[in-house]
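Below is one such protein, fold included:
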Amino acid sequence: MSETPSPERGLRNRSEVVASTSVAHADLKQLVKPFPANAFFLGEHLPDRVVDDNRQMRRLLVRFARLSEVLQVERDPLPWAAYTWGRVFCEEGELRWDGSEGELRVVYLGQAHLLAEHLQASSRPVEGLKRRSTQYYLFGERPRRLHPQEVGVAPEEEPRLFLTTRIPRPLFYPAELLPTAKRVTLKVYSYYDPADGATAYFRFAGLEAEPLPTEIRGGRS
């Protein structure tokens, strides 16, 4: 994947903090609660048994959506809190977790107002570091002339469908962001020591869309 770094800059007193601890799985809902509904969710589930040819379940093993979408789905065969690894992120901060070793290890990095009460005791300010922003292209492009049934997706899934020959399955990104997107980029903030350039932390910050050319959208330049 290609990347495009932005000019370096200081933190400018944004009151950013970092926190890390272990919590019970039941506490995850409270840790996510401070995030806005339009934050992004990225989860990966490590199943404890072989997954059969259930197409819906296979697609849920890796899920990229708006937080509001995953919280509101009823009768979901894989609830959002069941994901082995996960992230909830937006411009102001990111919460990520890892439950692969049984306990749930969580890390928060970002502005203090998104820090849940459970994490306050382990938090500390991010000081003495500078922050840079980098854009990474995600895999996949929007197909130009393809019927959804040709790749085995339902018509309602088409607005979020992206394809690449590198990954032998459909890719789905949050639909409402991408009505005219050709490709999608992930914005990442990295925090580094200006003395030696070493990166201390990084976090995801958002998605952005690279527009389709106007002639493909049906317009004229």
Remarks:
- DSSP finds five helices and 14 strands in the chain.
- Residues 3-217 form one domain.
- Residues 41 and 67 are 5 Å apart (CA to CA).
- The helical segments are 28-32, 55-60, 67-72, 117-120, 214-217.
